[in-house]
């Protein structure tokens, strides 16, 4: 089966300015042997930097934090038919300011294909699995114990993933 990688860039307002470097780095260093297409979501999608070969510009409205992150799945879901038309077999989201600096192969990211999803294990939790990254004290919307059905006991041994790079 031939494969094609769909890359997701989301950058609105000043974050759109990261796109030229992001595109250059992913083109030359991220799975350089694989065919790729980038889906660039931006409120500035009509600018020339987004209208280049191998890029599908997608216009979205700028959303303030945290909505731009929370709505990423809705944005991506809207272009699934376009991804299918482009022959995308694997999808990878990278933060707008994540610039691969050295060659990274398909196998480096997706492994042997035995797992359907990939993500980044947070370094603090990786280095110290007992790190209490899931708990934030106080009245904050980051307090996983207040915002979920989790308990201090139920989160023991769980992996804390970052949202900067994920796919499947």
What is this entry, summarized?
The protein has 168 residues and is α/β, with parallel strands linked by helices. The protein has helices at residues 19-29, 67-70, 72-78, 80-85, 106-110, 123-127, 144-147; strands at residues 5-10, 36-42, 55-59, 90-94, 118-121, 161-167. Helix 1 (19-29) links the parallel strand 1 and strand 2.
Question: Can you walk through the features of this model?
Answer:
By secondary structure, this protein is of the alpha/beta class. Helices cover 25% and strands 20% of the residues. It has a six-stranded mixed beta sheet with strand order 3-2-1-4-6-5, with helices on both faces. It is globular and about 50 Å long. 17% of the residues are buried.
Coarse morphology? globular
Total number of beta strands: 6
Low-confidence regions: none
Question: What value does the Rg take, in angstroms?
Answer: 17 Å
Helix content: 25-40%
Order of helices and strands: EHEEHHHEHEHHE
Oligomer: single chain
Distance between the termini: 16 Å
**Percent of residues in beta strands?**
15-25%
Number of helical segments with 4 or more residues = 7
Main beta sheet: strand number and arrangement?
A: 6 strands, mixed
Identify the strand order in the major beta sheet. Answer: 3-2-1-4-6-5
Main structural class? alpha/beta
Mean pLDDT over the full residue set: 88
């Amino acid at each position: 089966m031939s494969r094609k990688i769909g890359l997701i860039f989301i950058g609105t307002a000043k974050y759109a300015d990261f796109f030229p470097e992001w595109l250059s780095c992913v083109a030359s260093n991220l799975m350089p042997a694989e065919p790729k297409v980038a889906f660039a979501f931006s409120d500035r999608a009509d600018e020339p930097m987004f209208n280049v070969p191998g890029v599908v510009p997608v216009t979205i409205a700028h959303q303030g934090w945290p909505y731009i992150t929370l709505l990423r799945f809705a944005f991506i879901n809207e272009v699934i038919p376009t991804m299918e038309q482009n022959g995308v077999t694997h999808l990878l989201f990278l933060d707008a300011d994540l610039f691969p600096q050295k060659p990274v192969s398909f196998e480096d990211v997706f492994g042997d294909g035995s797992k359907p999803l990939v993500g980044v294990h947070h370094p603090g939790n990786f280095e110290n699995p007992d790190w209490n990254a899931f708990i934030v004290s106080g009245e904050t919307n980051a307090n996983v114990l207040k915002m979920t059905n989790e308990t201090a006991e139920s989160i023991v041994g769980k992996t804390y993933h970052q949202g900067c790079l994920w796919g499947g």
